[in-house]
Design the sequence.
């Protein structure tokens, strides 16, 4: 099963670095926090390494989205 990722809203600063580093993989929601919109693109960009603040986290196989 391919890796899947989520944004930890408590760690997300809404800085947009993830959108610059990996265009099309994340977007900012109305609350100013990022959300993953394309898992495949995010995997290709490096997944959790895209966010310098550690807000993008790998979802374990037994964890829901």
Sequence:
């Amino acid at each position: 099963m391919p890796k899947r990722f989520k944004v930890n809203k408590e760690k997300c600063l809404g800085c947009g670095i993830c959108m610059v580093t990996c265009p099309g993989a994340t977007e900012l929601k109305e609350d100013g926090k990022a959300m993953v919109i394309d898992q495949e693109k995010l995997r290709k960009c490096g997944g959790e390494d895209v966010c310098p603040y550690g807000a993008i986290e790998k979802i374990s196989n037994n964890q829901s989205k």
Summary: Residues 39-45 form the longest helix (7 residues). The chain is about 20% helix and 20% strand. The chain has one domain: 4-59.
